[in-house]
Design goal:
Elements: E1 7-13, H1 19-35, E2 39-45, H2 49-55, E3 60-63, H3 74-82, H4 91-98, H5 100-109, E4 117-120, H6 128-132, E5 139-143, E6 153-155, H7 158-168, E7 175-179, E8 184-191, E9 194-202, H8 210-214, E10 220-222, H9 229-246, E11 251-258, E12 264-270, H10 280-287, H11 292-300, H12 312-316, H13 323-341
Parallel strand pairs: 1-2, 1-3
Antiparallel strand pairs: 4-7, 5-6, 5-7, 8-9, 8-11, 9-10, 11-12
Helix pairs in contact: 1-11
Length: about 350
């Protein structure tokens, strides 16, 4: 199927704390695809997105959303129901990757090293010191389901732990308290499960937080990451394993801390990483030989529907299903629209 004959909807904005980053990613993607002569429609996502998508004429969705409702399986579920193929991971994989608790449980199940942790809920606050016990300091406090390091802090003393947990609870009712691992921050990029490379982040900040990611001009990026051949091979292998454990597809990023003792700790898998000029994944892709336009195109051409085993798109695997099947599917969509107007 020639996607240049189709309408590509770039979904951006959204209702999460990462809306501004999504708008930057979305505009960059839309402009890149337009340079390659794709028929692009910008769709700014708000509370009425279901109605907007039902009335739209898009044939495929390029998801440039981040955070809640954008990368947690919600918008993916809507697109599955509406029958609109989309970029990125499935409903389940997106939900798992966004959920730091469930993803860490899966990492442990697959023997993928990740920092020790425990979970704090609102009812646990009165006995937080007892729960923490001999867990030790420093620790990283983070919301269970947030991105871009929003709500994340490093705590070094018991007297500051409760305050940090309460602040994090502004973003999520469940909080992860994770052992702080000192080391270098490494990110691995993947496209459809294939490793693109590893990049190292160097920042003057206490950690690679929101300011370091998007605002601080002093943040440096080193590609390829300064790792020994053995360490480099190890983080790439672990990234593939983590990506597979969560069932992710499309363009993903896997974040690590690598210690001086040559230990690798997996922090998280981002199933919907940013694609801004400062974002890590486009820099990794550039190191692998992709221009941003070609990288965006590669992501687009892996768009698909993931649900319904008997669906014609599912049987073909990706958007390159034959025109007859695609035409039948579009007829179903049109019938749904007509029924909704009655």
């Amino acid at each position: 199927m020639n996607l240049k004959d189709k309408v590509v909807g770039v979904l951006m904005g959204g209702m999460s704390s990462e809306r501004e980053i999504s708008l930057l990613s979305g505009e960059r993607i839309a402009s890149a695809l337009e340079k390659l002569s794709y028929n692009v429609k910008r769709i700014y996502v708000n509370e009425d997105i279901v109605t907007v998508l039902e009335k739209s004429d898009i044939d495929v969705a390029f998801i440039a959303l981040h955070g809640t409702f954008g990368e947690d399986g919600c918008i993916q579920g809507v697109l599955e129901i509406l029958g609109i193929p989309y970029t990125g991971s499935s409903v389940m994989a997106s939900a798992l990757a966004m959920d730091k608790l469930k993803s860490k449980e899966l990492f442990r199940l697959h023997n993928i090293p990740t920092p020790p942790y425990y979970v704090v809920r609102v009812e646990d606050l009165p006995r937080l010191e007892e729960i923490h016990g001999c867990f030790g300091f420093p620790v990283v406090v983070k919301p269970r389901r947030e991105g871009s390091s929003i709500g994340v802090s490093i705590v070094r003393k018991m007297e500051h732990l409760c305050e940090s947990v309460e602040k994090a609870m502004k973003w999520d009712e469940d909080i992860i308290v994770e052992r702080y691992i000192h080391g270098r921050e490494i990110a691995v990029g993947l496209l459809e499960g294939r490793v693109l490379g590893a990049i190292e982040v160097v920042t003057d900040m206490e950690f690679y937080d929101y300011n370091a990611k998007y605002l601080d001009p002093k943040t440096k990026y080193i590609f390829p990451a300064r790792l020994s051949p053995l360490q480099h091979k190890c983080v790439l292998t672990l990234a593939e394993q983590a990506n597979r454990a969560l069932g992710c597809s499309g363009a993903t990023r896997v974040d690590f801390i690598v210690t001086e003792g040559e230990n690798e700790y997996l922090l998280e898998v981002d199933s919907q990483p940013g694609l801004t000029e400062r974002s890590l994944l486009p820099q990794i892709a550039a190191g692998a030989g992709y221009s941003f336009e070609k990288f965006a195109e590669a992501i687009l051409h892996n768009s698909r529907l993931h649900s319904s085993a008997n669906h014609p798109m599912r049987k073909k695997g990706k958007l390159q299903a034959n025109e007859e099947m695609y035409g039948e599917f579009q007829t179903i969509r049109q019938k749904r629209k007509i029924l909704s107007l009655k």
